[in-house]
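If you are new to this repository, start here. Below is one unmodified record pulled from the training split, so you can see the exact layout before writing a loader.
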Amino acid sequence: MPKNRDLRYNSLNEINPEIFNLSSLQFIYLFGNPWKCRKEMSWILESGNYSIANKIDDKFDLQCSAPYDGRPLVPVVEILVALNDECKQTVCECQLTYVYGRVDRQIQKQLMAFVSVNCSNRGLTEMPPFLPANTTVLQLSENEITDLTPLKANPVYKRVLDLYLDFNLVETVSLLDGSYWLENFRLLSLRNNKLTDLPTYALEHVLPHSINSARLYLGNNPWRCDCLFTPGFQDFLIRFANLVKDINDIRCSGDASENSHKQIRELKRTEICISPDYNYWLPLDILNIILALLIFLVIGKLLYDYWCFKRTGKLPWIVTKIP
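And here is the target side for that same chain:
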């Protein structure tokens, strides 16, 4: 029985460590295979003298295949195992979506992981207090969440770039004004919530300077359409039309008014700020009309007196009575 096994440069993507006879084996060589990096390969992290991992001479040179092409196998498996343990502390599903870093034995511990966590349709009434490390994408759709305070108060959300909160009960995002998260987010989806207004001043300050090319989804909310909020909101939508990706779905609430379900972007200012039953003949309007008529009357009388004077040489009656 040979003491060394050379399996380099084959098409192995996984291996069962139990097939080897450790008592007679000294070294195994596995470099050059397209390894499928999964948490099930945690055996390669074992360090005992009688472990198969201790026999792999080129263990730290092994590389992953898709979806982590070219990344060093050992640190990727370490990340996957840690992620699996952390994910068990939540009610969510977790996935390592991407690993960034140079393939270098000296710096392989410096790999950057990007994790996607899916907590959709879990019956949550609040945002999770704990997230796995390196969570950058968080799915919280189809829950009953109302409060976004954790985005401002809980540091685990600082690395979350993409947040999906569709089909929840969120009524306001005003508390995010001035928060670290709002200044650094990449995607915020709040479709089908209870939003009636938006702190456009806060977003107008953040979006032009965003380093992440922020994207917003705000459709299918019961937006308030009145003269106080809507004109500014409309200007915001037009200015950032390239960032608000569902602008055609942003409509007035269905409150049976004249503007029910109309696209806010397309509303005219007269539709927003003038009520259909507005009384155009207020007392002040009537007074203005009377004053205008009097001005025309005075001007007309002056022109008439001037014409009479030029024709007859007689001064107006009122002039003859002035001492």
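Two things worth knowing about this chain: Residues 283-312 form the longest helix (30 residues). The beta strands are 4-6, 27-29, 93-100, 112-118, 135-139, 162-164, 187-189, 215-217.
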